[in-house]
Structure formats: C-alpha cells, structure tokens
Amino acid sequence: MDLLLDALAAIGRAVLRICRTTGAVTLFALEALSHLVRPPFYGRLFGRAFVEIAYFSLPVVALTAVFTGMVLALQSYTGFSRFNAEGAVANVVVLSITRELGPVLAGLMVAGRIGASFAAEIGTMRVTDQIDALTTLSTNPMKYLVAPRLLAGTIALPLLVLVADVLGVMGGWVIGTFRLDFSSAAYLRSTFDFLQAGDVLHGLSKSAVFGFVVALMGCWFGYTSRGGAQGVGGATTSAVVSSSILILALDYVLTDLLFAR
Amino acid sequence: MKDNGAGIPKIRLRGVRKAFNGKVVLDGIDLDVRAGHSMVILGGSGSGKSVMLKCILGLIEPDSGVIEIDGRDVLRMSRREREAVNDRIGMLFQNGALFDSLPVWENVCFKLLAQGRIDRRAAREKAAEVLAQVGLAPSVGDLYPAELSGGMQKRVALARAIAAQPDIVFLDEPNTGLDPIMAAVIDGLIVDVVKRLGATALSITHDMASARRIGDDAAMIHKGRIVWTGPAASLGQTGNPLVDQFARGEREGPIQMELRR
Questions:
Q1: List of residues 6+ apart from A126 with CB closer than 8 A
Q2: Does B87 touch chain A (CB under 8 A)?
Q3: ipTM of the complex
Q4: Nearest residue, CB atoms, B86 vs list A124, A130, A136
Q5: N or C: which end of chain A has fewer CB within 10 A?
Q6: Residues of chain B with C-beta less than 8 angstroms from the C-beta of A40
Q7: By the 8 A CB rule, do B6 and B168 touch?
C-alpha cells in the first residue's frame, strides 16, 4: 500500500512540476512576444540571430535534405517495385519532403545547432552576471536577448525548409535519374504535376512553429540556468532534448489538427 | 560633503530581510549611506553582502523592509520609476560581467547606446575618453573582453560603470583576483572617478587595505545584520570584537567559521 502511495505521490509531483514549468515557459514566451511590439527594437540583434540560424545552419540542413531525398528515392523504389508502382517514387519523395521530412529534419538539425547555442550563450551570460549587468545598464534582458531570437527563429526556419524542400527533391531526382534509370524529364514532370502549393505551405507553417519552439527552448533553459559550467551544460542538453521532443510531438498535433484530410 | 537637502541619506535601508528556501540571508538590515560619501561594506563569504547590493539594485526582491534612494522607497515604485532610478546608478560586478560578444568600446558605452543618447560613432569617441580616465589606451576599445587581462577587465568594467555619469556607484569586490599592486591601482582609480563624478559609492570588499583606501565610512555585515558602522580609517581599532577580528584576519575570536559536518 505504501509503495502504491509513494508511486502516486511521485507521479503527482511530476505532473505538478510539468504544469508549473509549462506555465512558467508560457509566461516567459508571452513576455518576450510583448517586447516585439514595444520599442526600443534591437534590429542588429535580430539580424545577428537570423544570420546565425538561417545562414550558418544552411550547410547542415542542406546535407540532411539531400541525403534524405536520396535515401527516400531508393527505399520507396525498393518498396514500390514489389507492386510494379515504381512510377510513384517521385510523388512519394516530393510529398514526404515538403510535408514532413523537410520541416522535421530541418527543425531537428536547427534544434541541435541553435537550441544548444542559444542555451549556452544565454546560460553563460546568466552565470557570469551579464544578464544582471544588462538590467543595471537600463536594458531589459527579455527584450534584448530573448525577443529578437524568437522572431529570428520563427522567420528563419521556414526559409531553411524551403531550401531543404528543393534540395531534398533534387536528391531524389539524382538517384531516380542516375541510379534508378528514370527519365529525367518524366521524373520532374511527375514531381511538379503531383505537388500542390498546399503541401509546401503545410510544411512551412509547421516549420515556423518549430523555429519558434527551438528558439524558445534555447532561451528558456539558458535564461533559467544556474550553477556555473555544469548548469550551462545541463541547460544546453535540456534545450536540445526538449525542443527535439516538442518538434516531434507538435508535428503530430499540428498535422492532425490543421492539415490531416 | 553633499547632503541632499534635509540630510536625507542617499541610500537608506530599514529592516531588509531576505531568505532563500528557508535560509535567512538578510535578517533585518539597517543602513544609511550619506550622499557624496563612499561606504564600504565588510563581511565574510556568504554573509549577505552581494544579496544586499542586488536588493538595492532591484535584481532581487527582498521579503520585507524598506529601501530608499533619495528618500523614495524603490520597492514601491512602478517599473518605469524604478528604471529611472537605475539610470542614475553604475555597477561594477565582481567578475566584471563584460559582454563577451561586444568589443570594449561598445561595452563601455552600452547604456548610452541602448538609450539612444549617442550614436555609434560618437560612442567610440566617448569610450576612448572614458577608457583614458581609467588609464587605458583608446586602442583597447577595439579588443574583446576575452583578450584582456584581469586588471584590464576590471578597468573596463569600471569605465562602463561610470560612462553614463551616474550619481551612485556600486562596486562588488572590485579587487578580487588582482595582485596587490593592481588592486591599489584600481582602488586609486575608484577614488578618483567617484570624486570626479561627485557620486555616492557603495562598495563590497574583503580586503582591509582596499576598504581603508576606498571608504570614507564602513559597515560590517555578520549573519545577515549590520553589526557595526563607523569611519573606514578606524578599521582594526574599532573596539568591536567582530570587526577587529575580521580586520586583523585572526582565527580566534567571536566569528567562527561554520563547518559543515
């Protein structure tokens, strides 16, 4: 009986902790968003965060997209050839890349790069009193550190996903044409005939949410980190893990609620 | 001496209390800092000196008590009023808390730039002028904090604290980690710049020589309370056994190191 009560108490504590953290993160995000519509605005910081996310994440996102498109073409060919449906390879590649794999894989890559980077940078500022210093220098740390990063994440990830979509489809086309002996023109025609604007918009909408979540988790765990180098290390890990899980969970929720037909 | 009108202290604390997770850090602090004077706060590690300073700055909210600056209770001010008060305060953090991502000149003029009181070109000139006041060449302005020695970082942090010409300057252990000669140099700079600004200074230190050099007045904090105040020149011969033991650095006396068993 005691064991059961202990287990229930532990579950209860965990649920309360999750509720408390969810509330705190929500208030944190709302406060940061409120600074986006109240001057002063830090355009330079937005620009710096945007370049950090969009430009410096480009190689890793591009490579991920190309190889994913390539392997997708190979795997779908293997599967569809069992039903004599090889002609659907191009359709499957473009649909998978634009609706799912582009946004999710780019989101996960950016979570690894940017979530960690934001958490480490802001966490180091926290434990070295730089955030307190901002306050004493008449600068609101939420406005200066968090708001520009959230905006940059929300805008930059859809642009990266657009690039990932193109490169992913190109990866499939390379394999389809040079490895699986499809006609290049037929592959491309099949791709563009099948693709709808809604598929691309679907992926871009989700990626805007993912970009916001990645930036938010990086900023939150950095901002609330404590205890020196170990605390910053923990914040970095938590930012990457939580944003990755949230991307996968939100991917399902958003698809089911908004886009499933 | 510059008293403001009816002899109201520049900074006045009454019954300030603060506990963290049940551990009492400030246990009813009463303190007056006279306008235009330099007050030094002494106390052992963990005695609550930095917490007291952060309470005055608004970085930590005390559980109870009154904190007045120029006769106005800062704990009951609106955020905007509080920011206006903080505009007149300069702070030198224990570890400098310089912004790693910004060059020295931008660190020094951060507040002026953030408030739009100066453009970037003028800020460079202003930074060179303030750096000269703390004995640094204009070329230092183009370096990043990580490229500076500990003593230079302290000087830059002091330059940042005084760049906006505050009328109150807080200094949290300005000599920590410096060799005795550099410590004396920094002390000399602090005395010079505080006099030049006509500011009120509140410093925290463990270093008796530094306390005598910087301070007009001194106070000792022990177990979260102010146990003595008097002229800084009398440190070591105050007749208060707590202060005298601390000033002489004696092992035996009323202050016992708390050892965790």
A1: A222, A223, A224, A225, A226, A232
A2: yes
A3: 0.86
A4: A136
A5: C
A6: 114, 116
A7: no
pLDDT at B183: 83
* Share in percent of chain B as helix, strand, coil (round to 5): 40, 25, 35
Residue of B nearest to A39 (CA): B115
**Residue B57 · residue B133 · CB < 8 Å:** no
CA separation for the pair B105, A99 (Å, rounded): 48
- β-pair partners for B231: B217
pLDDT tens for each residue of B114-172: 888 899 999 999 999 999 988 899 999 999 999 999 889 988 999 999 898 899 999 99
Task: Choose the closest CB to A132 out of B97, B100, B115.
Answer: B97
* Mean of pLDDT values over B202-207: 89
For residue B28, give both structure tokens: 């009813």
- Give alpha helix (H) positions in chain A: 2-35, 43-50, 58-81, 89-96, 102-110, 116-127, 130-136, 141, 147-178, 184-194, 197-223, 228-254
For chains A and B, what is the number of CB pairs under 8 angstroms? 49
Q: Which residue has the tokens 């740390």?
A: A141
Interatomic CA distance for residues B212 and A170, integer angstroms: 73
Residue A99: domain span: 2-259
Residue B5: band (very low, low, confident or very high) from pLDDT cuts 50, 70, 90:
very low
pLDDT digits (tens, 9 = 90+) for B54-73: 999 989 999 999 999 999 99
**How many angstroms separate the CA atoms of A149 and A166, rounded?**
26
Residue B200's DSSP bridge partners are B168
**Which two three-digit tokens encode residue A124?**
């180091």
Statement: residue B195 has pLDDT above 60? yes
Does the pLDDT value for residue B2 go beyond 50? no
d(CA B215, CA B54): 20
The predicted model gives B223-238 an average pLDDT of 88
pTM confidence score:
0.87
Q: How many domains does chain A have?
A: 1
Q: What is the pLDDT of residue A86?
A: 84
Residue with tokens 């965990």: A14
**pLDDT exceeding 90 applies to what percent of chain A?**
87
B28 lies within 8 A of chain A by CB: no
Residue B51: strand, helix, or coil:
helix
